[in-house]
Amino acid sequence: MQSVFAHLILDVQNMERSIGFYRDSLGFSLREMNECDGHRLAYLATGHLEILLLEQPLRERTPIIERGGGVVLNLRVRNLLDVARDLKAASVSVLRDVEDPLFGERTLLIADPDGYAILLTEPVGTVH
Q1: What DSSP designation does 92 have?
Q2: Which band of pLDDT confidence, cut at 50, 70 and 90, is reported for residue 29?
């Protein structure tokens, strides 16, 4: 089977809160919003990555669902230390604070409003 990754689909509890997080905190652009049979859909993009946020109608929601479930969205950013400062100031949930190695990748692990883990990384190649 030959396939191509289309986009990541995240099941969210509150569409407005999730759009605000991805747009305002992470810099995604809102490309399109739709509704189909009570399902609210929002397409957000950054670079070549597209995320589909899906809010189920109340009648179809699973009462207990662990949304993180081991999925980690990895976004490469510039100026991670500045990004980390801004996210903390906006009270974004930090799961693991900035790790700043001498080489490799500087990282920050955060959670979106529904508990999905997002690993922000920035390459570092020189001793600092």
Answers
A1: P
A2: very high
Which residue's structure tokens are 């990895």?
A: 74
- Class of the domain covering 8-124: alpha beta
Domains of the chain, residue spans = 8-124
CA-wise closest residue to 9 among 108, 25, 39: 39
What average pLDDT does the segment 43-59 reach? 89
User: Tokens at residue 88, please?
Assistant: 């903390």
Residue 102: which residues within 8 A CB-CB, separation 6 or more? Answer: 124, 127, 128
Of the candidates 52, 20, 48, the one whose C-alpha atom is nearest the C-alpha of residue 33 is 52
Alpha-carbon distance of 112 to 110, in angstroms, equals 7
Task: Write down the number of H helices and E strands in the chain.
Answer: 2, 8
Our CA angle for 77, 82, 85, nearest 5°, is 115
Q: In the structure, what pLDDT confidence band is assigned to residue 69 with cuts at 50, 70 and 90?
A: low
- Report the distance separating Cα 109 and Cα 85, nearest Å: 13
| The pTM of the whole model exceeds 0.85 | no
